[in-house]
Specification:
Blueprint lengths: L1 E8 L9 E8 L4 E5 L6 H9 L6 E6 L2 E2 L8 H6 L1 E4 L11 H11 L4 H14 L15 H13 L5 E5 L7 H16 L3 E5 L3 H7 L2 E6 L2 E6 L13 H9 L15
Helix pairs in contact: 3-4, 3-5, 5-6
Bound molecules: adenosine-5'-diphosphate.
Length: 257
């Protein structure tokens, strides 16, 4: 579950907040597109989830973890519980496909035996088993993104977030990547994707949350379509967040080991 309750964030020096009283509740196993023009606040919202940025006010609970209580030294281990996919893949250039995935498991503390069992399974899922000995620069953009996705799902995260994962890919490859994310979602992972790609949003008919000027202005629960200009619905969104189990909003101490 992803829960943001009335989250506000203003970067130092900016006149207006990047996020203003944003409330969003994503249930386990949902697939959600986050859309909005450039500067709407999408990346900042993603950074709230990864705790790359801290809100000025509001509450954030991710997978049962209240981020107020994730101390600085625990942020890396918190992030390893999420799958995070980037638009520029962020692969290790001097490591093979196999090693890129294995390395992520190694730093998460998995044993060599488990790693040798897990990596081929994950590479098979993203259809890259036959490319495992190649280095990133020997792969197409779509293949590199599949390695990046393999790396992010290898630890079986409950939540996967992807900020513009198809921005650098052509149309066919984009469709392939979205189909892969959908497959991962079908296996039970909650997925939140930001995108500017109208075609994929309209094709997939999933939930679509639209942001504008730091606010959520539209939230289409099913069969969502890509539309950027809606009136703010801040009140409706606040109501949604309050409907979630009350205990989730009560501060409680929670530290990740
Ligand atoms: P989007 O991802 O929708 O393009 P962002 O979250 O990147 O939107 O940006 C939202 C607003 O916050 C914009 O006005 C942007 O200029 C501002 N912003 C984003 N990152 C920073 C930063 N590190 N420092 C100052 N302002 C920022």
């Amino acid at each position: 579950m992803i829960l943001l309750d009335s989250v506000t964030k203003k970067y130092p020096g900016d006149a207006k907040p990047a996020l203003e009283e944003v409330s969003l509740h994503i249930e386990p196993n949902e697939f959600v597109f986050l859309v909005g023009k450039s500067g709407a606040g999408k990346s900042t919202l993603m950074k709230m989830i990864t705790k790359e940025e801290i809100p000025d006010s509001g509450k954030i609970i991710i997978g049962g973890i209240d981020l107020d209580y994730v101390k600085k030294r625990h942020i890396p281990s918190y992030r390893r519980r999420l799958g995070v996919v980037f638009q520029d893949f962020k692969l290790l250039p001097r490591r093979t496909v196999y090693e890129n995935v294995a390395f992520a498991l190694e730093i998460a503390g998995m044993s060599g035996k488990e790693i040798r069992k897990t990596v081929p399974k994950v590479l098979e899922l993203v259809d890259l088993l036959d490319q495992q000995k190649k280095f990133p620069d020997q792969l197409s953009g779509g293949q590199q993104q599949r390695v990046s996705i393999a790396r992010s799902i290898a630890r079986q995260p409950k939540i996967l977030i992807a900020d513009e994962p198809t921005a650098n890919l052509d149309k066919l490859t984009t469709e392939e990547i979205i189909a892969l994310l959908k497959k991962i979602n079908d296996f039970g992972t909650t997925i939140l994707v930001t995108t500017h790609n109208e075609g994929i949003v309209n094709n997939l008919q999933k939930r679509v949350v639209t942001m504008k000027d730091g606010r959520i202005v539209d939230d289409q629960k099913d069969n969502g379509i890509y539309k950027l200009d809606e009136k703010p619905q801040a009140k409706v969104m606040t109501g949604r967040a309050i409907q979630t189990p009350g205990h989730a909003l009560r501060p409680r101490k929670r530290v990740i080991q």
